[in-house]
Amino acid sequence: MSEAERKNAKHKAAMEKQKANVDASIEAADEDRGVAILLTGNGKGKTSSAFGMIMRALGYGHKVGVIQFIKGEQLSGEELYLRDHCPQVEFHQMGTGFTWDTQDRSGDIAAAQRTWAYALPMLRDSSIDLVVLDELTYMIAFDYLPEEEIVEAIVSRPKNQSVVVTGRGGGSKLQDIMDTVSEVKDIKHAFNAGIKARRGVDY
Ligand code: ATP
Ligand code: MG
């Protein structure tokens, strides 16, 4: 047997084994329901991943609701796109901007509560397939919204509804109730090398 044939045979054997494992896992996953996903960590990619899922859902004609906490002060590509091209998507923003800019705790809390009042009915509406709660973790971390109420609303949402929460942190109570928790790790970021945040990439 030549070296190439030996490598090919080894590859085939490894792939057969992998296929058996993958098939067994697929077979074992027999629960069909919406999933709760938390995208957290200090690296770049949380909100953009959530909007990737919005695109997937829209591709299948699913009904999507999007709430952006903190955001709205500064325009973003995702806001422009949803408003111009996806009128069917219910979209709300808190609109205050960053807490270090507003420097107004009670104003921020009132805005957070107004915004959460849009999220709650979405989490009770079984016609909505995907709810995105962008930057929600900060509302819990700053104690702007009650964690218990958020956890309760996510846990008791309709069976077939998926929910995506983004933001750094996200306490252990929130992590406990989510089905998928991914941490985006900051290995390096262009901004820290002095490169400006970029339209269409960062916002
Ligand atoms: P994106 O919206 O690009 O997916 P994100 O949601 O993971 O990013 P946020 O913490 O919400 O990250 O921050 C949003 C903005 O901050 C984006 O412009 C992003 O590029 C930038 N950013 C994210 N991570 C870092 C980092 N580690 N250092 C500097 N800037 C960052
Ligand atoms: Mg984000």
List keywords for this structure.
single chain, 203 residues, alpha/beta, Rossmann fold, six-stranded parallel sheet, 8 helices, binds adenosine-5'-triphosphate, binds magnesium ion
* Overall pLDDT score: 94
Question: Which CATH architecture would you pick?
Answer: 3-Layer(aba) Sandwich
Task: Identify the bound ligands.
Answer: adenosine-5'-triphosphate, magnesium ion
Number of domains: 1
Give a written overview of the molecule:
This protein has one domain (34-187): Rossmann fold. The chain has eight helices and six strands; from the N terminus they run H-E-H-E-H-E-H-H-E-H-H-E-H-E. The chain has helices spanning 3-28, 46-59, 77-85, 99-102, 105-122, 136-141, 147-155, 172-177, and strands at residues 36-40, 64-68, 90-93, 130-134, 162-166, 180-183. Strand 2, helix 3 (77-85) and strand 3 (90-93) form a beta-alpha-beta unit. The mean pLDDT is 94. It has a six-stranded parallel β-sheet with strand order 3-2-4-5-1-6, sandwiched between helices. The chain is α/β, with parallel strands linked by helices. The termini are far apart. Magnesium ion (MG) binds at residues 46-47, 135, 166.
Brief summary:
With 203 residues, this protein is an alpha/beta fold.
Write the layout of secondary structure elements.
Elements: H1 3-28, E1 36-40, H2 46-59, E2 64-68, H3 77-85, E3 90-93, H4 99-102, H5 105-122, E4 130-134, H6 136-141, H7 147-155, E5 162-166, H8 172-177, E6 180-183
Parallel strand pairs: 1-5, 1-6, 2-3, 2-4, 4-5
The structure holds adenosine-5'-triphosphate and magnesium ion (MG).
Adenosine-5'-triphosphate binds at residues 42-48, 166, 168, 184, 186, 189, 191-192, 197, 202-203.
